[in-house]
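[agent] plan:
  1. take the single chain provided in the ticket
  2. run structure prediction with default settings
  3. attach structure tokens to the ticket
  4. add a short note for the reviewer (M.T.)
[agent] executing step 1
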Amino acid sequence: MREYFLANLFMLCFALATLFFALAACAQEKKEKKEKKEKKQTQAAATITISTYTPPPQSPLARKVHPRLFFAPEDLPELRQRLKTLYSTEFQRYINELDKHFDDAPEQRERGLPFFDAKNYAFLYLIDPATMRGFSFGHRRDEYGRKAIEIAMFVKRETRGDRHSSANLQGENGGYHNLALAVAYDWTFPLLSLEEKCALADAMIRMYDNRDSETNPGEYEKLSNQVTGYIHSGCAGALAMWGDELGPTYSAKAQEMLNYFNAVFLQRSLETGDKLFEGPGWSEGASYYMLGITNVSFMAGAASSALGENLFYKYDFLRHNALYIFYNTLPLKLRDKYWLSRHDTNSLDDVNNHNFSRILQIAAGALRKNDPVMAGVAQWMLTIGGYGLQVEDYKYYDPRIDDLFFNFLWGSKDVSPLSPEAADLPLTYKLGLGEIVMKSSFNKETSTHIIFWAPRIWYSPHAHLDQSSFTIYKHGSLALDAGNSKNADDLPRGSASREAIFHNILGLYNPDEPEEADEPNFMSFSFRPDKSAEYWKDEAFQPGGRSVIGELKAFESGEDYDFIDYDYSRSYTGDEKESKARSAVRRFVYLRGPENREFVVIHDLVDSQFEKRWLLHTAFEPQINNDQIIVTNNFENVAHGRMLVKSLLPAQKEIVKLGGEGQWFVDANGKLIRSRGPYLDWGAYWTGSWRAEIRTQAGEYLTVMQIGDSRVLQSMSPVMKIESATCSGALIDNRRVVIFNKKTTAQSTLSYQINSTQSVAHVIGGMTPNTFMKIRKNGAPHLNVKTSSHGVLSFTDSPGGSVKYEIGVN
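[agent] step 2 finished; step 3 output follows
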């Protein structure tokens, strides 16, 4: 009886803890939204004028023809031919399924199926059974059309609209409400009476008029998982009904909605994604990326045909989506899956699932004509590469949900797969929002996988304070993002994981921070972004603007190295009282090499009065041995990674470690942060359980890290510090030299000494760009080498023992 009581008590406590964290996360999100609205109310409201939008000449929308959403009249012959040849089996299966459910009452169609079936039956009407010999149809063309209209009339009574959950197509709230009405209206247009057209138009207008205020220009950022769904209200209706003769009132409203579509979708979603993100990316982690980019893609698909231009090809933000998934997939299959790199916004995400496969399928199908290389990469990921699933293998696959878009409209059977090597993809790639991914190879099991975060702007939905942070995976997680404050039950939960302290940064410790004694000290940055900024032309995003937080001063790749110079001084802007640093720079070099002879070299320069703490978050307990930190990950005897970290500068320092059972997450004062453990195995692997810190008052750090196989790598290769009045660096493994400028401005001369009998590759940063340099060896002229556009000088030489190099302008 006692055991029964204790078991039930434990379950009750666990349930209460789960509820507590859910409420806390919800409260935090509400608090953030409230703060944003209060901020806007205190600012002088600038009137935002939405310009009148005119469709591109000769586009289906400009010609006022139907259909125009997802395809135009001139596309129908080719589409019918694809169904007859490439997708005959799938199309007959689709017909059979729709005939099977033809007599179902609209209210009997579960989940989001009414939204899908309004489109499905409209599609059969448009394809026209009379043109499709060889297929067996249970109904006539007009019967399919009337069924689509019947369901659309039922759907128009719904008030749900669209949100982030619309992208979860098979879910209880999945499917697209606005597109269901818009597509049914557009595809059955010849069959609709004027009264029916007006009824559907009224429903689309009503959802536009009742849209969430965050969709409006000047409000919340549009590229967030929620708002990408909200903006379907208005955008879908505008594309469907603009130009139709429904009466003057409807015409005026349709133009208003089209102007809104241009402002919030073309300008503030797609253009802003291109101009601010500067590549495929998302600020909210893998789960919310999946929701948001799916919402964007469905609207882009409808708009592309209406506007007569492929938006997936026009905007790099969409065009390279497959690469966002590819470069964020971590090496090493764990528990029979490959996992994505950031996972704190919902469930832990593996790449081989139906949600990410749908994104890849859209990329393969939407780009098959305009960009066969990117389409081929997406197709390779879905097939040979093993990063995705075929449509029929989706979890909860249903022909009524999946076939229309993912087989017929975005199908890619005729796309030739291209491997990363065949597509000539680089090992190092800069994704959106400053995410730089560095790999040693394209091997899915053994590749080194490094991410460095160098954001230029602050785009805030669920964004991390991770300026200059890095993660390292080699045969398992070695340096990682810590915590997961908003996660499902497959991982433990800990609050505040977006804060600076839970990333591998050089933190600045102010003992008086924050002002409230009961609040945690997160060693936060001190910038104050403009929270009302959401358009790439906003002043806050221009040079010197409040939402500009960093500058990537150098980023280049040589044959066997990557060099990054990131100035994040603006992350510490603020008034004189608030600013914590006058300047802050991190240089990051990845040296590729044979197994167990790969290195990362990090050089930090920070001008601040506060104590500096170099942070390293690890899955399991690190070992500290004098000036070395040893990180090992042998999780489940599958992982077998090791990282040896040597601190060369500062000379005076203290190395400590914090964490372990019950102490998984602590703030800068060692105060416990609310969390729900245990973080002992699976949770620790992904979100960490320990933190190592190198503490000092000095403003310069030089750190060398060697990464490899824990079964082989037992001790660190020789590392010798190189230092003069103007430069700091290291001779590594007697074969590699990395030199950094001690200043943040370029220099035209430097000298250093090394002693090695091996052939040595030199990488020197911080030199005058695009300048020929004369290299003297032991006083004698030796080489003339030109620096890169970013001021990096590289050369290889055999010193033959002790040698002094002097470098100056030729």
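[agent] step 4 note for reviewer: The chain has three domains: 60-409, 428-525+567-712, 718-810.
[agent] ticket updated
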